[in-house]
Design goal:
540 residues, globular
């Protein structure tokens, strides 16, 4: 057995060095989530009574789908604490992102290494059979423990109960290891990293939905059903942190992680390096006639991701639209920051619709960046090379991807606007909200195109630069939602890609800023199409 683990330490140090930037960003961002949320609570919900706004909305079973069973939220207002709200509402999202970190980490260091052939080079030296997988899981363990320790320490720093804070940290580590184990198994099933991580992502999505449906079916005042217990996300939440700490559900997390990791090791011993347990289907000998151009190829690459984004965005639109009347009814009780974001009591409904469209616009901008990251991967992973070798011009290849991602982004934005408008109209008997939402979404299209054009322009300089597109997107989103509260300087707000979009329907449409945004987007796209053919493209 010891020979099977030869060089595990060396591979662990190698993996840590290769991931020192990417993994550090993940860990720091996840760890910062706790102090960030606790700081926001102190500003927005200065008094315990202010938290009744959140607990009041949690009485709506539909919201339970997106939060959790809500332990401790039915106590008298004077007994509510920021810690209870964090544990019952927002901790879920920290868990989801910790799971994502583990899915990407394990897939990146196992299946992707085999897919690119680097694993074969490593195994050509003195390396034990299980050393690569073991080193990857040790790296995942270290990352999860750091996140858990920092999260617990941050809670204690905000005057939280040490025992409950430690329970949150340990449960977060356990949940992360469960999805490291899930990805260990799925990476053995498929020969492709995207399929392996996609399967693990599907398990995470199913865990979220099953837990949500189980909690929602329990009804107000109840805390989950048997269906909830089928999800590892629920096991973490069923620890009842800051209310009635229970440690035994944590054993389910670590026990499941141990079983999954064991299954992963067994499966890895039953397949060849580079192969999967499930054999891929044979592709067609020739491509169908519709797939013989750069435009249709770009659609083929993006269509699966676009479909799932459409499903997710539509569900989000259904949720936000259904809360329209509840938000207006609760306006007087909302914290001042929310009242300010909604534009005042006289236009609360229009303000909520504007806020909803703003969030969707940011969401679709994120889709544009992720979609273009996939385009950059076509080049870095060598799939663009055979396409360009057929005589397709580089500018045409990039233009096809720009057109597809631009059209899909526009369609997603309009679909979410129509969906949220229809649902909001149904609950408020005001179907004029549909037109208002569509107009607001249409006004936001140029800002999304700016983000897309920036991603393409950075790609034209080199695929590794695409990651910098996240800076204006994340900064712009924070400025949109918290710019006034954070007193962001005006000159910074002016360079945000979202700042100049007309805030419809709360404000009237103005043509000039939209035209300027379109010109900026067109200029960025022109720079991308001019620069891309003028640099070296590997193998072309």
């Amino acid at each position: 057995m010891s020979q099977s683990l030869t060089a595990t330490g060396s591979l662990l140090r190698f993996a840590a060095r290769r991931d020192r930037v990417k993994l550090t960003i993940w860990v720091v961002a996840l760890a910062a989530f706790v102090p960030y949320m606790m700081s926001i609570y102190r500003v927005v919900f200065a008094n315990p009574e202010d938290l009744t706004v959140i607990t009041g909305m949690l009485a709506n079973p539909a919201l339970t789908l997106f939060t959790g069973p809500g332990y401790g939220t039915t106590v008298p207002p004077e007994e509510l604490t920021h810690q209870v709200i964090f544990g019952s509402v927002y901790w879920l999202y920290l868990l989801v992102f910790v799971a994502l970190m583990n899915i990407l980490l394990v897939s990146r260091h196992t299946r992707l290494e085999e897919q690119t052939g680097r694993a074969e080079l490593v195994r050509a030296s003195v390396v034990g059979r299980f050393a690569p997988l073991t080193s990857t899981l040790l790296l995942a363990l270290v990352a999860n423990v750091i996140v858990g320790v920092l999260a617990a320490a941050a809670l204690i720093a905000f005057d939280s109960d040490p025992s409950s804070s430690l329970l949150i940290g340990v449960a977060t580590v356990g949940l992360g290891l469960v999805f490291a184990g899930v990805t260990t198994v799925t990476s053995q099933l498929s020969a492709f990293s995207s399929a392996g991580s996609g399967l693990a992502g599907a398990v995470l999505a199913a865990s979220f939905v099953i837990r949500g449906v189980g909690d929602m079916a329990a009804g107000p005042g109840k805390h989950g059903t048997w269906l909830s217990w089928l999800s590892p996300l629920a096991w973490a939440q069923q620890t009842r942190v800051f209310v009635d700490d229970r440690w035994w559900p944590v054993a389910l997390l670590f026990g499941t992680a141990a079983v999954l990791v064991t299954v992963g090791f067994v499966l890895s011993a039953r397949r060849d390096v580079g192969a999967g347990i499930l054999q891929p289907r044979r592709g067609r000998a020739t491509a169908p006639s519709w797939l013989r151009g750069p435009l249709t190829l770009a659609w083929r690459i993006q269509r699966s991701q676009s479909f799932w984004w459409a499903v997710g965005a539509t569900l989000a639109a259904l949720m936000y639209g259904s809360f329209s009347q509840a938000m207006v009814d609760a306006f007087e009780d909302l914290p001042s920051i929310f009242q300010q974001l909604m534009g005042g009591a006289d236009a609360a409904l229009e303000g909520y619709s504007t806020l909803t469209i703003t969030m969707f616009r940011t969401l679709i901008a994120i889709f544009a960046v992720i979609a273009w990251t996939k385009v950059a991967a076509e080049e870095t992973e060598g799939r663009a090379e055979p396409v360009l070798a057929t005589g397709v011009r580089p500018a045409s290849w990039m233009a096809g991807h720009l057109l597809v991602v631009g059209l899909v982004s526009t369609a997603l934005l309009l679909v979410t606007a129509v969906t949220s408008g229809l649902v909001a109209g149904a609950v408020t008997d005001d179907f004029s909200l549909v037109g208002d939402a569509v107009a607001g979404a249409a006004a936001g299209i140029p800002s999304v195109l700016i983000v897309l054009g920036l991603a393409a322009a950075l790609h034209a300089l080199g695929p590794r630069f695409v990651v910098f597109t996240w800076i204006p997107v994340i900064a712009g989103a924070l400025i949109e939602l918290f710019g006034d509260m954070l007193q962001v300087p005006t000159w910074i707000r002016q360079i945000s890609p979202f700042e100049h979009t007309p805030a419809m329907p709360a404000e009237d449409f103005t043509l000039a800023p939209v035209l300027v945004q379109l010109l900026v987007a067109a200029a960025l796209i022109a720079v991308a199409l001019w620069r891309f053919p003028r640099r070296d493209i590997p193998g072309h």
